[in-house]
Amino acid sequence: MKAAVLMKKGPALDAFKIREVPKPEIQPGQVLIKVAAFGLNFADVMARKGMYKEAPPLPAILGYDVAGTIDEIGAGVTSLKKGDRVTAMTRFGGYAEYALTNASAVAVIPDELDTATATALTTQYCTAFYAASEMVNLHTDDSVLIQSGAGGVGTALIQFAKHRGCRIFATAGSESKLNYLKALGVQHPINYNTQDFEKVIRDVTEQKGVDVIFDAIGGKSIKKGIRSLAPGGRIVCYGASALNGKNIFGKIITGLQFGFYHPAMLMMPSKSIIGINMLQIADHQPAVIQRCLQQVMELYKAGVFKPSIAKTFPSTAIGEAHDFLENRMSTGKVVVRWE
Ligand SMILES: NC(=O)c1ccc[n+]([C@@H]2O[C@H](COP(=O)([O-])OP(=O)(O)OC[C@H]3O[C@@H](n4cnc5c(N)ncnc54)[C@H](OP(=O)(O)O)[C@@H]3O)[C@@H](O)[C@H]2O)c1
Predict the structure, then answer these.
(1) Which of the listed residues 229, 261, 278 is the one where a domain comes to its end?
(2) Structural domain of residue 227, as residue ranges?
(3) What is the CATH number of the domain that holds 94?
(4) E strand residue ranges, 21-159
(5) How far is the CA of 241 from the centre of ligand 1 (A)?
(6) Quick one: pLDDT band at residue 174, thresholds 50, 70, 90?
(7) Which of 106, 294, 321, 330 is the most exposed place for a label (fewest CB within 10 A)?
């Protein structure tokens, strides 16, 4: 089978080669999927640049989400059958014509859902659902700040917060992304290049602060975020995109800028910090992944979740697809298709 293999770390355009590799061998509890389309996630960019410690050694096949048809069923799997159209989370190995994953990380997709759009509903929408429903449980009239709101996870968080009747603040780095946020129904879009989110929140909420913040930027954004929480507020930390493009000193500074917190500093003002790593959940709580996938699919069918596809690339342009995502050109999901 063909795979888009990460051959060397560094700039996107030199990093990948399409190679013939052996088809993976199925194990009990797994399914083998013939992949029509696979999705990109920002973690893939971090892995390509050597900033993701869980990534496999080179030459590596990255990839967290795929969509296609079930080609083979492992022993013990009863919930799926050969030929089912599915979308699935993979623990790497997604950038290939065939991908293996556990049956718990697979959802059957409706006939009308195309495979490119289906890739968005796995890692990015499941992360958003897990964060906003399972970890935080957003309520009507909660005020919510969504950092990097125009991205894949950001779009899903906005759609979920809107569904729950929240008042939404969201940040992005360009006017076109701000227009995208407005079209999604964000009441307070913030261009972080011209506005300070902490000041906007202070002014709009009359010093009170917001109830929930979703932040995958990290560094000083977390410290400012904690200051921007109202009493009872929670900040969900799920990434560190601020590390991208930094040299070793920049990374150390960004690491220190997160801040150091004693429980008393959270208890006294009644604020909480929540950390999320979906790989850990997939490894240790597969039933939670299955539940999130099923709920995401129901919300898709109900019209609450509407993935937005930024661009679809052919597999031969995998480097360009990475470049596009890394250089902040995408709104929503970046997808790659096998021809
Ligand atoms: N913890 C988990 O389990 C988990 C799971 C999924 C995703 N994540 C994290 O969630 C975040 C979003 O993931 P995604 O796949 O949906 O990506 P994405 O948001 O679609 O794309 C990345 C966006 O991040 C923003 N950004 C902020 N700082 C950046 C930087 N230094 N370099 C490049 N872009 C930067 C850019 O938007 P602007 O132009 O608006 O700045 C860019 O468009 C990532 O940090 C990812 O690692 C974590």
Answers:
(1) 278
(2) 125-278
(3) 3.90.180.10
(4) 30-40, 65-73, 85-89, 98-102, 106-108, 143-146
(5) 6
(6) very high
(7) 294
Residues 15 and 44 in one domain: yes
User: What's the CA gap between 270 and 233, in Å, rounded?
Assistant: 7
Same domain, yes or no, for 42 and 153?
Answer: no
Residues in the ligand 1 pocket, defined by CB under 6 Å = 41-43, 123-124, 127, 148, 150-154, 172-173, 177, 216-217, 238-239, 241-242, 244-245, 276-278, 325-326, 328, 330
Domains identified in the chain, total number: 2
**Closest Cα partner for 131 from 263, 288, 271, 265?**
288
| 3-class DSSP state of 139 | coil
Token pair of 286, please?
A: 């597969």
Please name which of 3, 69, 62, 87 lies closest in space to residue 33, comparing C-alpha atoms: 69
For the segment 130-165, what is each residue's pLDDT rounded down to a tens digit? 999 999 999 999 999 999 999 999 999 999 999 999
- Nearest ligand 1 atom, CA 216: 45
Do 209 and 139 have their domain in common?
Answer: yes
Structure tokens at 238: 């799920």
Q: In Å, how far are 85, 168, 251, 298 from 110, measured between CA atoms?
A: 8, 30, 43, 10
Please check whether residues 142 and 260 belong to one and the same domain.
Answer: yes
